[in-house]
Amino acid sequence: MTLNRVLEEANDIKTPPERLQEIHKNYPNPEISSALVSNPNTPYDVLWKLGKDFPRELLANPVFDLMLLENPNLLADMPKDTLISLLRLPEIEKSYVIFALNHCRETDVLAAIISSQTQLWNDWRQDNPDIKIDLRGAKLEGADLVCPILIPFLSPVLSIITVIF
After folding, report:
1. Could you tell me the pLDDT band of residue 144, with boundaries at 50, 70 and 90?
2. In a domain, 84, yes or no
3. Can you give the residue range of the structural domain that contains 4?
4. Where does residue 137 fall: left (phi above 0), alpha (psi -120 to 50 degrees), or beta otherwise?
5. Is the pTM of this model over 0.85?
């Protein structure tokens, strides 16, 4: 079977899940993998495996919202690598990030949120200063973090600086 024919099958929403699973196993091709992640008939286990490398396609797959309705803890239950890839997307819904902040406290998940959704992280930390978070070992290059403990102390200083300038 030609690669083009396999790609057509991977894109076809009428292709049975069993065939999509077979395509995934036998054709490790980025274009085919992208098509599989976009296909709502693709088995969930294949979506999770490929979603790590194709998070936009996973998020855009119409079955993703249905999976969330079926399982409100979907983000916590999916493989961590796939969740991290989704959380790094600038277009990820705020509610997904908040869910992850409230339910997934693993350092690498938090690092993904902090590095890609810094303002949302800062807001969440200001609203939740009593939650203990251990970020030792987190890779936070380029993150512009606000420490909630310093905010009350910095406010008068910032007011003075604003008045001076």
Report:
1. low
2. no
3. 1-70
4. left
5. no
